[in-house]
Amino acid sequence: MEIWNRHFECMDRNELKQVQNERLRETVERVYFNVPYYRHKMQEAGLGPENINSIDDLSKLPFTIKNDLRENYPFGLFAVPMSEIVRVHASSGTTGKPTVVGYTRNDIAIWSEVMARTLTSAGATRNDFIQIAYGYGLFTGGLGLHYGGEKIGASVIPISGGNTTRQIQLMHDFGSTVLACTPSYALYLSEAIQESGINRDDLKLRVGVFGAEPWTENMRREIEEKLRIKAIDIYGLSEVIGPGVASECMEQNGLHINEDHFIPEIINPDSLEVLPEGSVGELVFTTITKEGLPLIRYRTRDLTRLSFEKCRCGRTMVRMDKCLGRSDDMLIIRGVNLFPSQVESILLEMSEIKPHYQLIVDRVNNLDTLELKVEVEEEFFLDKISQLESLRQKIQNNLENALGLSIKVTLVEPKVIERSEGKSKHVIDNRKF
Ligand SMILES: [Zn+2]
User: Fold this and answer.
1) Residue-range definition of the domain harbouring residue 419
2) Out of 146, 230, 312, 332, which residue is the most buried by the measure of CB atoms under 10 Å away?
3) Where does residue 7 rank: exposed (0-12), middle (13-18), buried (19+ CB within 10 A)?
């Protein structure tokens, strides 16, 4: 398998550390002298650039959170004059102001480079036809993949999201070999292809690069079976650069982080302490090459684990596990950590139920209680009461075996659980803290 940038992606880890040390020092100087916000925060912590000599000093630096970007809306955290900025992206916040990110010409070159690595690690080459069904525009997905695709010399189809009929037509007529979109859209597309009457054998699709939302291993299996492709997980966030922060190789066993550009740390989201190697915790990134919007110890809220074990693909860059969920989503039930995505992946394995569910958390007599409401497929709901009860018991047992938690399960008719904008609200926490 090809590796786009063998020099960096397979670099000896001691040598890599030297590169990181040097780039970190440059970045700290850049933000200290160019971004008043960072200068004040460092001064408050009694720090100057001279105190940060290597990545071992990283934990001395203060964290940055999404709200810091909002409070400095729109361009307050940019480290270069606007005349140096060639591109601006923004993510729409659910509340309040959007998060704005800016790129210099050099930042765009780095972004293209890490996206070229991403696509190459998914097996794409100049001989591929890449159909980019991520949204183009202020969102970083479409243009991120676009520049990476052009950099490796592939033929790029900038079709953007939506218009499923045309997606399928072009996929067929142009012979697209690589599909880039969100995993949920890939699933949707797979069903639409089946319904379209187009024979799968007439499509040349071989691989998919999917990201921008968390997805389970079960979902991967489903996409791979239905589309008959290899489904590769990619990871990124606009604040750090967009897609291209990390990506799976063909081993599909963790996502290699582009550590020569982004230094990862894993912290305890409550105590903010850096956790030892191998622990699950919140992922934090420090960018060390970005000019427009460098970020120091940016808290992603994504929960994962790092693995420094050697990968069979030959890359030496650390791997992160597929994201387990967001630290905001994590529930602590009677001292046990629980992510709604864990419940979801267990439910997805059972054909009798729909993936529409709701977890209701409460506290009775100082004890946490957890109830799961889940919708049953139409044909099963019409079955005998006794059969429903045995299905209910089966779900309860499966959950308890997998999670070590007893959860009260209630079966409900299809379409009972409220949907907001097509998505269900998965957790209702009635506990008062
Ligand atoms: Zn690998």
Assistant:
1) 333-429
2) 146
3) exposed
Note the pLDDT of residue 98.
87
Residues 76 and 102 reside in one and the same domain: yes
Distance (angstroms) between ligand 1 centre and the Cα of 116 equals: 15
pLDDT-derived band at 420 (thresholds 50, 70, 90) equals: low
284, 319, 354 — which closes off a domain?
319
Distance in Å, CA 5 to ligand 1 centroid: 13
- The CA-CA-CA angle for residues 291, 294, 295, to 5°, reads 170
- 313 and 359 co-located in one domain: no
Walk across the sheet containing 319-320 and list its strands: 155-157, 129-132, 178-181, 207-210, 230-237, 242-248, 255-257, 319-320, 306-307
Q: Tell me the CA–centroid distance for residue 142 and ligand 1, in Å.
A: 24
Q: What is the CATH number of the domain that holds 299?
A: 3.40.50.12780
CA of 349 to the centre of ligand 1 (A): 28
Residue 184 falls inside a structural domain: no
Element (H, E) at 288: none
Q: How far is CA 247 from the centre of its chain?
A: 10
| Residues within 5 Å of ion ligand 1, judged at the Cβ atom | 249, 251, 311, 313, 315
At 396, which CATH number? 3.30.300.30
249 CA distance to ligand 1 centroid (A)?
5
The answer to which of 145-149, 230-234, 350-354 has the lowest mean pLDDT is 350-354
Instruction: Please say if the pLDDT value at position 424 is more than 60.
Output: no
Distance 310 CA to ligand 1 centre (A): 8
- What's the mean pLDDT in 138-150? 97
